[in-house]
Amino acid sequence: MTAATALSGTFPHLLLLHARERGAKPAIREKDLGIWQSWTWAEVRAEVEALACGLSQAGLKRGQHLAVIGANRPRLYWALIAAQSLGAIPVPFYEDAVAGEMTYVFQNAEIAFAIVEDQEQADKLFEILPQCPDLKRVWFDNPRGLRHYSQAELASYESLVAAGREFAKASPGFFEAEIAKGRPGDTAIMMYTSGTTAQAKGVVLSHDNLIQSSRAYAELEGLTADEEVVAYLPMAWIGQNLFSYAQWMYVGFRINCPESAETVLTDMREIGPTYYFAPPRVLEALLTQVTIRMEDAGWVKRTMFKRFMELARRVGARILDGKTVGVDDRLLYALGGVLVYGPLRNALGMSRVRVAYTAGEAIGPDLFVFYRSLGINLKQLYGSTETSVMVCVQPDGGVKSDTVGPPMKGVEVRIVDSGEILLRCPGLFVEYYKNDEATREAKDAEGWFHTGDAGFFDEAGHLKIIDRAKDVGKLSGGTLFAPKYLENKLKFFPHVKEAVAFGDGQAEATMMINIDMQAVGDWAERRGIPYSGYTDLVAKPQVADLVRECVEQVNADLAADPKLAASQIHRFVILHKELDADDGELTRTRKVRRGFIGEKYATIVSALYSGAKQCVVEAQVRFEDGRTGNIRADLTVHSAKTFAPAAAKAAA
User: Over the chain, what is the mean pLDDT?
Assistant: First the structure.
């Protein structure tokens, strides 16, 4: 009997099950100093027991919260299970969050205990300690730089586990007795929303929410204990938690923690994951690297790559979906697999990927088709923190570039007159922590969750997402204005990293744009254009022309859509700095905070609509060392060509 056939009540129950059934098999690996280290399920159980006993001795009680802060590390995963074993509730944080962002969560959740990865995270907690009087104990994993710290609240992970082992010896039945108290409806974890437009909310998810969602994906894809997964995304993101924790605990496969963010691609090539999850921004970054490498390659390689990729885009996805393809094309595609597609999949670390998912933002059709044309079974899904990522997913053989697939088994979806998507599903969250009003606004009396997203079903029953319902507006002439839709179309170009659209209530749509420094920098170097940094590069007239070409291509595409033809982008500004989460312009999941940006750069918005050719902007920024300062820049307002609907095809 396996975990997939015997659904247990909680994640700690599943841990005990795996330790009994596959105790000698690897459960988790970590690369440290270039060497992969492995722990079996039996060893994980022993580590979790010692940690849980140590936390109990330190005072962590059922229902209390434990902060878990850092990158993907085995000890941080064990901290999640240890807290759940005691009936306590782990609260993961984004490791790149600045200290000030953590204050609200520590206060709201009344967090008294924290396990952190290293000195950087410990320093943040000591910075906010005066504002967070409930915080009593902080344990660290990596001791580097902490040798001379003397704070009474600080102690090592090793000391916590050592105390736990001593307690476990004296109380041999304590650990399993605590696990036995757990029930499926108990809170498993609390994850805070990204706070795109308002204060972050604590989303309370039960064991049942996450296990039901994990089971749905496991059954859909036939996941087994032999899967290999690379755990590299932020632990505080629901996508990472579901695919690299909840599903790991449910199915019993192996997760692999890379050495660092910089080594993820190398580590992926070594592990060869079979099950992969990545937001579009990660897939875009990988494709940008491939594009740059091919542009720097010799003529023969560039020509071969171009010819075989043209073939792949034409027939690769059809072959992947099992559709009819001519014999000649199949033979050529097989040859391309040896010469181009296979080496490229290996370079991307995806040689063994059996199924891959992307979610979090819309993915460009060209980007989506690129991966599928290589034979990578990439599929889109739709979900949120509140739904345990359990709403829609594309089925094999029914993959479309512009939808997120039909509802999953057990999920009900309906579209109200306003276009907003409402749903009910087994993964639906319990409540927003300490926020009954927000809970009632999100979940109505009949149990329907109001997602805030706007969309519709196509003729095949696949859901298509347009934008956030509250962000969909109208131009002054009455034309539909969907800012995220415009932003995503522009971000599909490798030279554009971020875009922020404006136009609700205005006569025309306009845009603020960030270039992709790596892609545009390489483009400039190959053309002999000198530059000293980001600000200097975006001021080059050649770069303005490059971005204008991207904007005008988007306008040509929009002109072909009768509903959106009038929302073409008339003017744009290339920002003097990259939008940054530390400056409040993006969330930690890299979602644009459009309202905040509009207020912060009000002078730019005014220039975009006043007919001015230049504007001066001054704004506060946060530097890498934590200091803040003001930067001032003179920006150019650029105009872009727009197209009449009849001219769209010729322009494209």
Answer: 91
Contacts of 201 (CB under 8 A, 6+ apart): 192, 193, 195, 432, 433, 435, 438
* Integer angstrom CA distances of residue 23 from 243, 375, 539: 21, 35, 60
Residue 371 lies in a domain: no
Query: In this structure, are strands 449-457 and 420-424 parallel, antiparallel, or unpaired?
Result: antiparallel
Between strands 154-156 and 89-93, the pairing is: unpaired
- State the SS3 of 274-312: CEEECCHHHHHHHHHHHHHHHHCCCHHHHHHHHHHHHHH
Cα 76–81–84 angle (5° rounding)?
Answer: 125
**Host domain of residue 614:** 473-651
Domain boundary among 221, 244, 277: 277
- Compute the average pLDDT of residues 610-630: 76
d(CA 481, CA 564) in angstroms, rounded, equals 7
Amino acid letter, 171: S
Kindly state whether residue 337 falls inside one of the protein's structural domains: no
Residue 319 CA, distance from chain mean position: 29
The string of DSSP codes covering 265-282 is: HHHHHHH--SEEE--HHH
Segment 280-309 mean pLDDT: 85
Token output for 553: 């291509």
C-alpha distances in angstroms, 241 versus 17, 141, 424?
Answer: 20, 20, 21
Question: Could you say which of 248, 277, 306 is where a domain stops?
Answer: 277
Residues in contact with 172: Cβ distance below 8 Å, sequence separation at least 6, in sequence order: none
Total structural domains within the chain: 2
Mean pLDDT of 612-616: 92
DSSP string, 343-404: HHHHHTT-TT-SEEEE-SS---HHHHHHHHHTT--EEEEE--GGGTT-SEEPPTT---TT--
pTM for the predicted model, two decimal places: 0.84
Phi, psi (rounded to 5 degrees) for 574: -90, 115
Residue 60 lies in a domain: yes
Average pLDDT score over residue span 67-77: 97
Residues belonging to the chain? 652
Q: How many CB atoms are located within 10 Å of the residue 650 CB?
A: 8
